[in-house]
Amino acid sequence: MLNFTAIDFETANSYRGSPCAVGLVRVRDGKPVDERRWLIRPPEPVDYFDGFNTMLHGIDSAMVEDAPRWRHVLPAILDYIDDDVVVAHNAGFDIGVIRYACAVDNIEWPEMRFLCTMVMARRALSLPSYRLPYVVESLGAQMGHHHDPLADAHGVVAVVNALAGRSGVGVLADLAASQRMSIGRMSRGIYTGSVAIGSGGRNFTPIEVNTDADPSGYLYGRVVVFTGTLMSMTRDVARQECARVGATPDQNTTKRTNVLVVGDINPAVLRPGSNVTGKGP
């Protein structure tokens, strides 16, 4: 069964942990059966609105003045999700909102399983853009106003249903497997992203740079190095994507390096007095 909860956050400013609204859609057997939309007052240290963000989603400080704080909304979100897998378009961002907002409020990360439709779309479709409205339209579906969190959550549902139909599967785990990607997991300081499955670690797939790539592309001819945990794909897959557009991926930074891509970190390591190391085992 295609049972899951779709989620989308909007943020007040450029800091990822500044949620100001959330949209959730509960799906059973591929059909939306319930929905929620809550305004949220961001955690106190990041409770301010950037004009750019307000321009995107139309939410400002006055609209959330009487809304509950993040620490009070989080339990309601978790109760609504229950045991569902959470599905988001760019789960690295939306699950990151939870992680970073919890870090600001000194709350442990909740346990959660999640799947990313942006990664899935990259695996299944060849498109010039993988922004949610473009993916929805390319699959012959429709969605409401982009950056309304509830409309975006419904857009996620449309993507899941369309890709499941194309793959001939009716279970969310089977859909992930059909696109060779993982279901991510988060719990008390542990995070594993929903990413394309490749050869992990340093056992990288041999690189063959595409000499026929578009020379006007930004990465064409550049040397790119990745470090840290990537949110939407493994480092091996990222290296292959760079080679496809004419870049040369390298394992270590040198004088030749043009682009350094820094992956995500556990924000707990940034707390004063933290005894959590940013290094993996």
Provide a compact summary of the structure.
Helix content is 30%, strand content 19%. By secondary structure, the protein is α/β, with parallel strands linked by helices. A hairpin with a 2-residue loop joins strand 6 and strand 7.
Which geometry do the CA atoms define?
globular
In the CATH hierarchy, what is the superfamily of the largest domain?
Answer: Ribonuclease H-like superfamily/Ribonuclease H
- In CATH, the architecture of the largest domain is 2-Layer Sandwich
Oligomer: single chain
Q: Give the SSE order as H and E letters.
A: EEEHHEHEHHHHEEEHEE
Secondary structure tally, helices? 8
Q: Beta-strand percentage? A: 15-25%
CATH C-level of the largest domain: Alpha Beta
**Regions with pLDDT < 50 over 5+ consecutive residues?**
276-281
CATH T-level fold name of the largest domain: Nucleotidyltransferase, domain 5
Spatial extent as radius of gyration: 19 Å
Number of domains: 2
Q: Please summarize the sheet with the most strands.
A: 7 strands, mixed
Biggest β-sheet: strands ordered side by side in the sheet: 3-2-1-4-5-6-7
User: What's the pLDDT, averaged over the residues?
Assistant: 89
End-to-end span in angstroms? 37 Å
Enzyme class: transferase
Keywords: Exonuclease, Hydrolase, Nuclease, Nucleotidyltransferase, Transferase
EC number: 2.7.7.7
InterPro entries: BRCT_dom_sf, Ribonucl_H, RNaseH-like_sf, RNaseH_sf
